[in-house]
Design goal:
Length: 82
C-alpha cells in the first residue's frame, strides 16, 4: 500500500478517534501513522492495529499524511477501510 492508494481509497478514516472506532469494528485493512505525531496519540491505535494483524505504514510527517487524505491540515492517523 502507498499514500496514493490512501488518496484514492473510496472508504477511509482520518484521525485518531475515527480510526480507533474502525479498528474496534475490524474494518481497517491498512493503517497509516505519522512519524512526527506524539507517541501518546498514535501508540494506542498502533497497538490495536498490531493485535489485529493490520498492515501498518509510517509516513514521515503529519502534513504529508493530511495531504494524502485530501485535507489542508496534518493528520496523525488514517486508515483504508475494507
Amino acid at each position: 500500500m502507498s499514500l496514493e492508494e490512501l488518496r484514492v481509497a473510496p472508504r477511509k478514516t482520518i484521525g485518531t478517534k475515527q480510526t480507533r472506532k474502525a479498528l474496534e469494528r475490524e474494518e481497517v485493512c491498512t493503517l497509516f501513522l505519522a512519524r512526527d505525531a506524539e507517541d501518546h496519540i498514535i501508540r494506542p491505535v498502533a497497538d490495536l492495529g498490531e493485535r489485529q494483524g493490520v498492515e501498518i505504514l509510517y509516513v514521515e510527517t503529519m502534513m504529508k499524511l493530511g495531504k494524502a487524505c485530501g485535507i489542508a491540515v496534518g493528520a496523525a492517523v488514517a486508515a483504508i477501510l475494507r
